[in-house]
Write a structure and sequence with these properties.
Elements: H1 18-44, H2 53-88, H3 90-103, E1 105-106, E2 109-110, H4 112-120, H5 124-137, H6 144-153, H7 158-161, H8 165-181, H9 198-225
Antiparallel strand pairs: 1-2
Helix pairs in contact: 1-2, 1-9, 2-3, 2-5, 2-8, 2-9, 4-5
Length: 231
């Protein structure tokens, strides 16, 4: 089955991106499956107008899986590629240095336990990079701020990842309403869940896939060339 959405990765990426590419492709296919099921159901019922609760849930699932795919793909990129990007890009090295400086202190005093752990490690630099990887992958990456924060460690300009921050915040807000609130709106007199429109949910899902594809492409470019261009 082909993706119903644009920005499906074509597979021609650096080998370190293989797992991340697989994650994004599967997110595409899953979201496409939900969309196809929605359209088939409407066609079978010859439906016009109001959607059923089941059809609404398919639209919600489509957006949720796209957001989860973005989260999972970025975390895999961190695990598989960040150490190498730090070696290749001065901007990434600078971000790594700032992380280490912050981590060496606890409040106003040095964190001697952390320093001892680094010094006792057989590979102190790897120990520090591994700590950064854990730091970046230990929380949800399903918000504008978190996506851009992780992108900065790859030396990716925020404007390249998410040009329309307000629009992206609306998308993640919709995702949070679905995941954390069951999309319930107690102010609605009859059906007490927020209604979702097909075209709007398709656009939101597509926007997330564009962000994911851009993130993957930017990381691949850094692995492929290793130059330190001023973006």
């Amino acid at each position: 089955m082909e993706s119903r959405f644009e920005a499906l990765p074509d597979g021609s990426y650096h080998e370190r991106c293989d797992k991340s590419t697989t994650i994004l492709r599967n997110a595409h296919l899953t979201a496409s499956s939900f969309l196809s099921t929605f359209e088939t159901d409407r066609k079978v019922r010859s439906a016009r107008g109001t959607t059923t609760d089941q059809e609404q849930d398919l639209l919600r699932a489509m957006l949720t899986f796209a957001s989860s795919g973005l989260d999972s793909m970025i975390k895999q990129l961190v695990r598989d590629t960040l150490a190498e990007v730090i070696n290749l890009r001065e901007g990434a090295q600078a971000q790594f240095k700032e992380f280490v400086e912050r981590r060496l202190r606890r409040g106003d005093a040095p964190d001697y336990s952390f320093v001892a752990g680094v010094m006792a490690s057989p590979d102190p630099r790897k120990h520090l990079v591994d700590g950064l990887v854990v730091h970046l992958t230990s929380r949800s990456l399903q918000s504008v701020e978190e996506v851009l924060r992780v992108g900065s460690y790859f030396d990716i300009p925020s404007q390249k990842l998410i040009p329309d921050r307000n629009g992206a915040r609306e998308i993640f807000s919709a995702r949070n309403q679905i995941v954390h609130e069951m999309d319930i709106d107690f102010e609605r007199p009859n059906r007490n869940r927020r209604p979702r429109k097909l075209q709007d949910m398709k656009a939101k899902t597509q926007a997330l896939f564009h962000v994911a594809h851009q993130f993957l492409t930017e990381v691949d470019a850094r692995l492929g060339s290793g130059d330190d261009r001023s973006d």
